[in-house]
């Protein structure tokens, strides 16, 4: 492979690219954007350069790149290699996880405040751009260089692109004018922690249970020893207070802490608790809402050892902390810790590896632990620490289950049962707040012709279109395709088109119909936009005169509203009916969490769960907030049916625009797996179309393998990938995912 590089110099005559050979041992570490050292001209010293393109060959005789300056330690490179192997992806993709986001050449210390900045994105498809380059439609070398750069690095600022490709902004502007690139405005509305005046707080006196947990973990901090803990306790049992005191200890020893939280719970309220204890200078926050520049600055503060406490979502596990002392993963059952994009890594597994190597304790916290975690804490692989009581003495809410079959029998066809209706009415009268939870967005989720049974599907995906009443359009939730309403059946011409299923929009309209005076706010993917963040919606709900918050699972997590005394679950079954072995576990978790939103302070809370399957154990156990009872039933089922934690589910996924090729390739993969994996240990199912067998005009097939993943199987599957790519399956993308979040 050959790299096209730009020498870092201001010399005008060097304003062009040079080719350098990429030595085999550096191949995995060099990608567009890498900083490298190269022998240049007759100079004796090595020159610094940036890679702006990578290609197969050069027409010139070229020298080798001498060194890569990714700014990474050997340890980080090792970790990247480990991740690549374990999660079946390229090392370069893993290296990116560990690098400072974006590159800043100027103003690193000059943080942007309340200012709009423009970031550069591709406007045309990659295929189209490559076509235009190959066919000479784009001739200018500089334009090619910039396009190649943006292809690999979307979301950079124009000055960044100028610096990294050594081209002037005029060329970026030409590409924008010609429709290849576009600018998207990002409003950086807050520096994560600036402008905050927060009163200091001191360590609270720990309860007995908290103290026992604290002491056990503290011993491992003192001894510089690895151990994995599960801190299991209902919401409000004081887990966060234990984290805070452990971090305090770590920081006092001059060490650092990484705290992972689900993206959505990185709210100001949550951060305030950390700031009030440690002050903002010591804390770095990493999450996707920050601009690349801000994330870069936070990264640098960590690297320079100025920030000792890193709080962030999944990818913060790669923060370049100095002298690690502890890793804490809050709400460890949350599915966001597993990446669904390449590299499809699991941050909990990475945390375990890092904690083991750095010899520090790893603390997982949850009220409803992941079934596998709890299983491991029962069989001694993880040390279990329990907090059984609520720390601030508030009571758990009363939970009532309503049987929707019975409601129908009583002639109530509305989305609200009698009980829920009456409780909402009462809450409105008492000026208290209500949250209504429905895990589907849009208005109707299913559109069918009554005469011939035709259902309206997306033209790109094999999936039902959802009717959105506010825009009066049909939308595909997978690819975003939209179309006008269907008035006549395209198959038989009948006008008996019916809309079935319910989503949050319909719920909102129904509430307005039944309670015309109620003020509502809706929170789902359609209302949460860049301009209207989920935090802003929650703030409005908290501070303004709003009676009812209606939303999808976004409303479930970690918020604290003193005036919310009623939570209604409109259809508990929506998550039960999903074809996934975790359906009951997810249902139990969601119901338990959503119930935890009611009556958080001195006002008593009430929860109403509506369901067509009121006898299902996940709903029954959630009513009693009895995790351990739920666990006993579910783990027995998993054992019987052989699902995790009793084995791994390995999914080899195929994605292709060519149906013949996808069949051919998946059969080749199947043959390879059958011939190379131990048939005693692994059960390999024949290739089949995925449940959703077409998304965005790409066919989707998969092979499912059940068994315990081990070193040998990992080698074999990595070989399988390489082998298939060598066999020229260029139009088919193959991915391997172990225990994926989503089985669709
Ligand atoms: P969790 O993280 O398990 O939800 P928190 O740590 O947020 O629990 O604690 C819930 C509430 O109880 C908070 O308001 C917290 O300040 C309070 N709290 C926690 N530990 C103590 C303690 N030892 N003494 C008094 N109050 C406490
Ligand atoms: Zn019809
Ligand atoms: Zn679609």
What does this structure look like?
- The protein has 744 residues and is an alpha/beta fold.
- Helix 1 crosses helix 2 (91-98), helix 7 (208-222) runs parallel beside helix 8 and helix 17 (583-595) runs parallel beside helix 18 (617-623).
- The strands form 7 sheets. The chain has a 7-stranded parallel beta sheet, sandwiched between helices. Strands 16-26-25-17-24-23 form a 6-stranded parallel beta sheet, with helices on both faces.
- It is globular.
- Strand 11, helix 10 and strand 12 form a beta-alpha-beta unit.
- It has 21 helices and 31 strands.
- Mean pLDDT is 87; it is low at 103-114 and 187-191.
- One zinc ion is lined by residues 458, 460-461, 476, 478-479, 481.
- One zinc ion binds at residues 449, 451-452, 454, 489, 491-492, 494.
**Structure summary, number of beta strands:** 31
Instruction: Indicate the radius of gyration in whole angstroms.
Output: 28 Å
Mean pLDDT across every amino acid position? 87
Listed once per kind, the bound small molecules are:
adenosine-5'-diphosphate, zinc ion
Per-chain topology:
Elements: E1 2-7, E2 17-21, E3 35-39, E4 46-55, E5 67-68, H1 74-86, H2 91-98, E6 115-122, H3 126-134, H4 141-152, E7 156-157, H5 158-165, H6 169-177, E8 181-188, H7 208-222, E9 227-233, H8 239-252, E10 256-260, H9 268-278, E11 283-286, H10 292-303, E12 309-312, E13 324-329, H11 347-358, E14 361-366, H12 371-378, E15 383-387, E16 398-403, H13 404-409, H14 418-429, E17 433-437, E18 446-449, E19 466-468, E20 473-475, E21 482-483, E22 497-500, H15 504-514, E23 520-523, H16 534-543, E24 548-551, E25 564-569, H17 583-595, E26 606-611, H18 617-623, H19 627-641, E27 648-656, H20 659-676, E28 683-684, E29 688-695, E30 698-707, H21 711-726, E31 732-738
Parallel strand pairs: 9-14, 9-15, 10-12, 10-13, 11-12, 13-14, 16-26, 17-24, 17-25, 23-24, 25-26
Antiparallel strand pairs: 1-2, 1-4, 3-4, 3-5, 6-7, 6-8, 18-22, 19-20, 20-21, 27-30, 27-31, 28-30, 29-30
Helix pairs in contact: 1-2, 7-8, 17-18, 18-19, 20-21
């Amino acid at each position: 492979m050959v790299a096209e590089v730009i020498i870092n110099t201001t010399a005008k005559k060097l304003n062009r690219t040079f080719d350098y050979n990429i030595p085999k041992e550096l191949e995995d570490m060099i990608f567009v954007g890498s900083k490298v050292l190269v022998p240049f001209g007759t100079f004796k010293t090595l020159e610094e350069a940036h890679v702006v393109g990578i290609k197969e060959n050069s027409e010139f005789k070229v020298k080798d790149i001498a060194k890569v300056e990714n700014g990474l330690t050997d340890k980080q490179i090792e970790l990247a290699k480990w991740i690549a192997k374990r999660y079946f992806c390229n090392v370069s993709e893993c290296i990116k996880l560990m690098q400072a986001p974006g590159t800043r050449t100027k103003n690193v210390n000059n943080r942007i405040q309340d200012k709009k900045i423009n970031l550069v994105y591709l406007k045309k498809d990659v295929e189209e751009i490559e076509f235009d380059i190959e066919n000479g439609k784009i001739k200018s070398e500089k334009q090619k260089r910039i396009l190649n750069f943006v292809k690999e690095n979307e979301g950079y600022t124009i000055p960044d692109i100028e610096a990294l490709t050594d081209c002037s902004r005029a060329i970026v502007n030409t590409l924008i004018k010609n429709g290849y690139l576009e600018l998207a405005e990002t409003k950086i509305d807050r520096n994560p922690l600036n402008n905050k005046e927060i009163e200091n707080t001191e360590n609270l006196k720990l309860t007995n249970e908290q103290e026992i947990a604290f002491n056990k973990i503290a011993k491992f901090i003192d001894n510089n020893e690895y151990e994995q803990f599960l801190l299991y306790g209902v919401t409000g049992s004081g887990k966060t207070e234990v984290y805070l005191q452990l971090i305090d200890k770590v920081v006092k020893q001059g060490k650092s802490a990484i705290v992972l939280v689900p993206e959505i719970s990185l709210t100001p309220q949550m951060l305030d608790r950390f700031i009030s204890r440690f002050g903002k200078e010591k804390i770095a926050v990493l999450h996707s809402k920050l601009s690349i520049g801000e994330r870069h600055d936070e990264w640098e503060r960590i690297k320079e050892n100025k920030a000792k406490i890193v709080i962030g979502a999944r990818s913060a596990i790669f923060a370049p902390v100095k002298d690690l002392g502890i890793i804490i993963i809050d709400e460890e059952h949350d599915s966001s810790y597993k990446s669904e994009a390449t590299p499809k890594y699991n941050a909990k597994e990475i945390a375990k590896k890092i904690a083991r190597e750095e010899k520090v304790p790893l603390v997982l916290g949850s009220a409803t632990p992941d079934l596998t975690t709890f299983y491991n804490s029962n069989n001694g692989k993880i040390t279990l620490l329990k907090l059984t009581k609520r720390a601030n003495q508030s009571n758990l809410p009363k939970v009532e289950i309503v049987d929707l079959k019975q409601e129908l029998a009583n002639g109530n066809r509305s989305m609200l049962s009698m009980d829920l209706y009456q409780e909402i009415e009462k809450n409105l009268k008492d000026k208290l707040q209500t949250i209504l939870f429905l895990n589907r967005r849009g208005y109707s989720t299913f559109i069918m012709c009554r005469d011939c049974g035709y259902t309206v599907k997306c033209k790109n995906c094999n999936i039902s279109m959802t009717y959105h009443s506010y825009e009066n359009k049909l939308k595909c939730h997978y690819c975003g395709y939209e179309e006008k309403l269907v008035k006549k059946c395209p198959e038989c011409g009948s006008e008996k088109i019916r809309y079935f299923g319910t989503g949050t929009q319909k719920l909102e309209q129904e509430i307005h119909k039944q309670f015309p005076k109620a003020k509502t706010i809706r929170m789902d993917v359609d209302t949460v936009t860049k301009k209207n963040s989920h935090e802003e919606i929650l703030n409005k709900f908290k501070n303004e005169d709003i009676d009812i918050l209606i939303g999808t699972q976004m409303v479930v997590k970690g918020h604290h509203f003193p005036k919310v005394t009623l939570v209604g679950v409109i259809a508990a079954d929506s998550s039960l009916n999903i074809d996934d072995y975790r359906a009951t576990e997810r249902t139990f978790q969601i119901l338990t969490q959503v119930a935890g939103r009611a009556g958080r302070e001195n006002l008593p809370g009430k929860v109403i769960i509506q369901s067509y399957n009121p006898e299902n154990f996940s709903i029954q156990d959630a009513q009693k907030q009895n995790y351990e009872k739920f666990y006993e039933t579910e783990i027995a089922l998993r054992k019987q049916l052989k699902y995790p934690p009793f084995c791994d589910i390995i999914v080899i996924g195929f994605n292709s625009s060519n149906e013949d090729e996808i069949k051919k390739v998946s059969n080749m993969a199947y043959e390879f797996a059958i011939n190379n994996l131990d048939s005693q240990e692994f059960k390999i199912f024949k290739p089949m179309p995925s449940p959703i067998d077409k998304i965005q005009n790409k066919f989707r097939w998969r092979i499912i393998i059940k068994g315990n993943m081990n070193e040998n199987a990992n080698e074999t599957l990595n070989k399988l990938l390489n082998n298939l790519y060598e066999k020229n399956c260029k139009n088919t993308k193959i991915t391997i995912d172990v225990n994926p979040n989503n089985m669709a």
